[in-house]
Structures are given as C-alpha cells and as structure tokens.
C-alpha cells in the first residue's frame, strides 16, 4: 500500500492518477484474487496510453463479486468500478523553476452495485466519483506523491431514488526513494502508516516486503499491524507478481 509515490505501472490509476504521465510507455495490467479464500472474487484490469511525452490517457476496471447459489443460499452480489484517467506532466517553461517535471492527474469513475436473492434483485445502485493526484520529483532520487480520492465523497443513487454516500473523501501522501539501482523504499500515510520495499535482482527477480499499521484503532499496535511479502519475475516485456 506504500505506492502513491512509486506508482510505476498502470495500477497507478487507482493509487495516484498523476503517475500515468510519467510512465512514458503503453502498459496493461491484470490481476485476480479470491479474497480471504471465501469466494469473494476480485478482478482488475488497467491500461495506460501515452499520447505525447507529457500527456497520457488510461482506464481501469475493478470487479468484486460473490456468488453462493451453489451453496443453496441464493445470494449473488457484485460491484463494478470503471475509471477514465488523464495525466499531464508539466511542460510550461515559466513554471519549470517551481514545478519541474511534476505530474498531475484526474480520474473520473463510475460505480455500480447490485445484489440478488434467489434470482430477484434486492438492491441496485450507481454513481460517479472523482480522484485527483500529484507526483513531484525531488532531488536525491526522491519522489513525492499526493492523491485525493473520492473528492467531496462518492454517492450512489438506488433504484428507489435513495442517495447514499459509500466513500468519504480521503487523501494519501507518500515518499519513494531509490538509494541504489534496483532498490525502492517507500512510505505512505492515510488512515494507515505504510512502509514498503522492493529489490530487483539483476532486473529479473523482485523481492518485496511491507508493513502497515492503523493509526486510529482501539486495538493494540500489534493487532493493528499487518505484514506482507511478494515476488515478481520479469522477462522482456512481461512481468508476473504474486
């Protein structure tokens, strides 16, 4: 989760939309997970297309679904979110002394939720939201990232006409540092403190580890802390992560 200043692939659309202007290449990302092993399926797809050296567009799609019809309970639910994104990297000469190569991003997203019980709709709602992002290069191989997600809050309207806020406005800020070739260290701050690291061995194998802890929790700090580990393998233009 310490990714708002790293944002080095197409998933930046979700973490910090400003970063797509700094990718400088086409990229497609796809992911799948069975969350918690409970049959809560999550799928993700993202694509980024640089238009010029300073302009880029992209889109992503996120789906979460649950289906226990086979278990005899007859419950089905799904959530879909589609985002369209624009990123711009500063190219105005008179602003270079202040902004340098800072990037800015805007993501407009559409959300839909529905639930069925025994094949009959019991809930259906949709709405739109907005994300903003900033990515600012700093000296000594540092980058600063800042994003505001669900600006002003994101609401959906139910078929009944009821409006409901499902995501409050929230922000995240982060720093990323590359102290040496292949090594990235990063931290993010939102409702959690997040720390992460990634090291590429000869550009082919990535080793990753991270930790996050809730800042406002009635639990002990140990109970509020989660660790994570991961691997990545890269060959030519393709990469797979776990």
Describe this structure in words.
The chain has helices at about 10-15, 20-25, 95-100; strands spanning about 25-35, 40-50, 55-65, 75-90, 105-115, 120-140, 140-150, 155-160, 165, 170-180, 185-190, 190-200, 205-215, 225-235, 240. The radius of gyration is 20 Å and the shape is globular. It has about 240 residues and is mostly beta strands. A hairpin with a 3-residue loop joins strand 12 and strand 13 (about 205-215). The protein has 3 helices and 15 strands. It has a 15-stranded antiparallel beta sheet that branches. The model has no long low-confidence stretch (mean pLDDT about 90). The longest helix is centred in the first third of the chain and has 4 residues, at about 10-15.
What is the rounded distance between the termini? 15 Å
Strand percent estimate: over 45%
Structural class: mainly beta
Average pLDDT works out at 91
Q: Which value, in Å, is the CA radius of gyration?
A: 20 Å
Question: How much helix, percentage-wise, in residues?
Answer: under 10%
* Gross morphology: globular
Largest sheet: 15 strands, antiparallel
The low-confidence runs, each spanning 5 or more residues with pLDDT under 50, are: none
- Helix count from the secondary structure assignment: 3
How many β strands by DSSP?
15
Encode the helix/strand succession as letters.
HHEEEEHEEEEEEEEEEE
Give short descriptive properties of this protein.
63% strand, 15-stranded antiparallel β-sheet, mainly beta, 3 helices, 242 residues
């Amino acid at each position: 989760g310490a990714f708002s200043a790293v944002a080095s692939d197409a998933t930046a659309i979700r973490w910090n939309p400003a970063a797509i202007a700094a990718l400088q290449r086409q990229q497609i990302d796809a992911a799948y997970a069975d969350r918690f092993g409970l049959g809560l399926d999550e799928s993700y797809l993202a694509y980024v297309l640089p238009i010029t050296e300073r302009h880029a567009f992209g889109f992503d799609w996120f789906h979460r679904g649950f289906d226990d019809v086979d278990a005899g309970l007859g419950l089905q639910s799904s959530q879909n979110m589609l985002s369209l994104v624009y990123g711009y990297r500063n190219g105005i000469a008179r602003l270079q002394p202040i902004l340098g190569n800072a990037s800015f991003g805007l993501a407009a997203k559409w959300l839909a939720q529905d639930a069925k019980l025994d094949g009959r709709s019991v809930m259906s709602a949709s709405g739109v939201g907005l994300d903003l992002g900033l990515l600012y290069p700093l000296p000594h191989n540092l980058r600063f990232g800042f994003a505001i997600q669900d600006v002003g809050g994101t609401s959906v309207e139910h078929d009944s006409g009821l409006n409901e806020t499902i995501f409050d406005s929230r922000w995240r800020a982060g720093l990323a540092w590359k102290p040496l070739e292949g090594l990235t260290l990063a931290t993010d701050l939102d409702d959690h403190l997040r720390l992460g690291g990634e090291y590429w061995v000869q550009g082919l194998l990535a080793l990753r580890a991270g930790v996050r802890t809730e800042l406002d929790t009635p639990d002990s700090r140990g109970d509020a802390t989660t660790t994570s580990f991961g691997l990545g393998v890269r060959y030519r233009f393709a990469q797979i992560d776990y």
